[in-house]
Fold these 2 entries.
Entry 1:
Amino acid sequence: MKEINVGLLGFGTVGSGVVRIFHRNCALIEKRLGATLKLAKIVDLDIERDRGVAVDSAILTTDAAQVVDNPDIDIVIELIGGYEPARELVLRALRNGKPVVTANKALLALHGEEIYTEAAANDVDILFEAAVGGGIPVITSIKENLSANKFSSALGILNGTCNYILTRMTDEGEEFADMLKEAQEKGFAEADPAFDVDGIDAAHKLAILISLCFGTKIDFEDIYIEGISHLSSVDISFAGQFGYKIKLLAIGKITGGAVEARVHPTMIPIAHPLADVDGVFNAVRLKGDFVGPVILTGKGAGMDATASAVVGDVISSARDLLAGSKMRTSPLGYRTEALEKLPVKAITDLWGPYYLRFLIVDRPGVLGRISTILGNHDISISSMIQMSRSFKDAAPVVLTTHEALEANIRSALYEIDLLEEVCHPSLFIRIENEME
Ligand code: HSE
């Protein structure tokens, strides 16, 4: 049987998962592919550490050239992560005519254009299913199965660490810092956990999704990003009383010819299809003009689920090689020259309902002053809860609004925070009521 030689760059958690699949499902893959996938080289700076998987020491090397410049290597897997040397090695492998499979969302979100252009110039695959949603086949679904559709939105729970933390805060009333520590111990978190909790990792994945869904180039800096570290269990409990759950959502939409590209904590109705996506699970809800809403869910992080997507891409690429075509589908599923550059909507132009929280000294007239300021900014209250005084004379007041302009919400909160009865900066959370 024909052998296809695979070179792996990066022998960390996901790399070890890849090796496990090569070992355990080798015969099954042969039956499906009609060829043998052979892990011919593994490159890492540390080739001594025991990863708990058996590997022939002869294939281990610290020299990346033995993969990217080696004529015997047919397909390269990049699992180094980060920008350099991953970027340089991926470009070199593509220039050498080798298809590349990567899970590196940060690299693609910031340097995607350069990498896709190099792949197209050399007519080779660059596949990245594992970069968004771990084991969930979202990228191939958009590029292949759903490619008859014009998409109007892509909504995702795209960071397993944040979803794990928010789930534990919701279910157990735990606080943020303790849950972050727990998620890190479980091995989902990025090397720098700020990437997770500040929403950056989800934004990297959103940048990729937006290009795939809407055929537009997007500058990473144009994505509005807000993390979860300012949320407290109090907000989660109030959200529940209003009939909502809080999720870190990555939202891509086309409205009025512009792209909405934003990552932030979002209140969604308890009956929303994404509300029960808990723990390390991720989900993406796509809306196409012919197919309608489609929800894909599964494990969004972790060794095995991510390795499953990586090896799936290796098998696809091997099929292309066997069919004599190194690039059957363009990287983003669009002809490169057909990609547009649509305008990105400013977050202050967002129109929707909001949750507001104030911590106020409970004096006669203070609620009236707050509602007057809201009214002056065209903000109408939908429902309100005032708690009994809990700290000195202070009491939290929380409310939800009807649809309002975010610029007005921000100006109103600025004015409200100047009132002498307001003893803590007020907070707002966007609400997404649309269920379909
Ligand atoms: N740190 C990421 C997460 C890993 O928590 O989802 C998968 O990209």
Note: The chain has 14 helices and 18 strands.
Entry 2:
Amino acid sequence: MTLNDIDVFWVLLCACLVWIMQAGFLCLESGMTRSKNNINVALKNICDNATSIFLFWLIGFSIAFGVPFSNPLGDGNFYLFHSSENTLNAFFVFQAVFCSTCCTIVSGAVAERLRFIMYPILVALIAGLIYPVAVNLSWGGSLIHNGEGLLLALGFYDFAGSTVVHSTGGWVALALVIIIGPRLGRFDSEGKAHTIQGSNLTLSALGVLILWFGWMGFNGGSAYNFSSDIGIILSNTLIAGSASLVFTLILIHRAGQSPAPEDLFNGALGGLVGITASADCVTSPAAVLIGAGSAISVLFTSKLLLRYRLDDAVGAVPVHLGAGIWGTLAAGIFCDLGTIGSELSRLEQIGAQVIGILVTGVWAFGAAYVLFRAINVYYPFRVSPQDESVGLNISEHRASSELYELIAFMQYQSDTGNLHRPAPTDQFTELGIVGMAYNHVLNTVRLKEEKLKASNSQLETANESLRTYDQLVAHDLRNPLTVISSYAAMLQEDPDAQNNHREYVERIRRSSDDAMKIIRELLNFSRASHELETLEPVDLEEVLYNVRIHLTPLIEQSQAKLSTDCQVKQLHFNEFALHQVLVNLISNAIKYTPSGEAPQISIRSYAENGRHWIEVEDQGIGIEQEACERLFDNHQRLHSSPGTSGYGIGLFSAKKLLNGAGAEISVRSEPGRGSCFTLSFTPAPAPAQPSNPFDLESQDETRTAT
Ligand code: ADP
């Protein structure tokens, strides 16, 4: 290799530009991944830069450019590369940063779930074996003996490495993506893809521009001399990247979609990858076509990955493999055959390109898949699901972030219910300011909580006084009313009383009876609500027996027939409250049976769907469907014909009592055919007989009134 000083300067300058691409990859990839992983992604990028250059120096450079299968320490080998020759050193630097580029392509694809410790291992294998062999096939052979790589000998042309660098990286990335599987949450159980939004797309955009800038060195330096060819190489590089981005926009617009940020990033980068194989030997219009084809390849490959549920976190495979394959093929189609000097016809050149693509693909993918699959058995590449959920910044590097701390703080609050510690704040950072705003919200919540507590205790006191008031009402109102009622009865029976006086007296008596009934119901409700605080085992048969005794006069008078069928005998409820509810339902069933007919009431209890049920069914006058819906509201009297006394508060109270202790009541009814009230209770916790809360079948026909 003979280079003059200006050529050496140019190659080294371009090597620096290629090295700057590492910064571009770092920005692009860490911005496209979630903030819980971005430190990890950035560290991986720095790490692969160092590891790959070290391995390339150690062994890779020799495999790529030494004499194949020769004595490692003999003439023509570059193990532990060292040379006093300026040209060779410049060449090494340029090739070493190319190797780094190939390795770093992989880090983006497998980001957010790869164990950090495994990353240097896989980079070592890429830089020490997979990449150098790919280089040797296409560009290699001995620098000293002017040997030729196998593909080079066939006439395969890859100017700056669409296949050698980019597709090789893409193939390895694909193999790893298959081996380690998608990120948690990327695909649901039906295979539908969910977008995982990057944490800083502005940073990614900067990364794309840095890469674009560095690409001038990537392609420009590949000429290895500072000649007039540099102009066309750089102009083609610019044009293809731009054309690819423009065509991406057109394609997405034609598909009726709006362009996602990653489409734009990958659209531009795809064009740059595509032109890399032929930047020195195609015309500008051909560069545009290569850019357009790259746009299609990137979009097509992305769709293909989604179809097979392969998760490439940054789109490395579509950009570097998809556009790399296209660019290499396009070199055969559009190149100036004279410039590349392969002495092949157009068709033969295309054939050589296809062979080059296939051979490199089989080597890079095959070697990566076999090696990494085997390693994965003993040393898994992937982090645990817990670590993946927490994020690799924390789990792999203990590198906390403000966001993580704020989230951890909120998690602590939701777990413990302790709202008294303030969130971490910092007036100079965005999340610190969020913390301050959150503390303001917390203060308001705390104030409200205190007010609520104060109102609660006021309510408690008021409730207590109400209970005392109940007793007063019972005592002070009921007694005088009883006296009025008794004297009215005596007056009514007085033979001297005039007829119209008797009627007035009758009215007084009825009103005082009604007032007494209301007081009784209110007292019962108040007592039952109070007693609901204790839930205990209740013997249903015993409760029904007491209800029957309680209602004996009504039952005998109406000649009602009560039948009971208790499959469930013990409920977990409050005895007094259940007694009140059943008294109300049974007396209603009697009351709302047409006069002259003997009421038929059946009471049934059973267990179903993990709950206990009681049904009280009558064959009375029934209720309109529309009225059923408001039956449990206060003061609902649907039937007020003579003989049916009531105030419309019985069912309202019953529902309140039941709901207060987790039970429910509903009704189904048909006018003229009777009604059926259904009560549903939660059984006492019984671990030996787990309930099935998911089976809701039988609730379909019963409207629940809660
Ligand atoms: P009331 O004291 O009026 O009976 P409820 O709250 O117990 O008050 O009942 C409200 C209304 O629901 C009643 O006025 C009646 O019209 C209707 N109702 C209650 N139970 C039945 C029933 N078993 N059959 C027909 N209608 C009923």
Note: The CA atoms of residues 138 and 254 lie 38 Å apart.
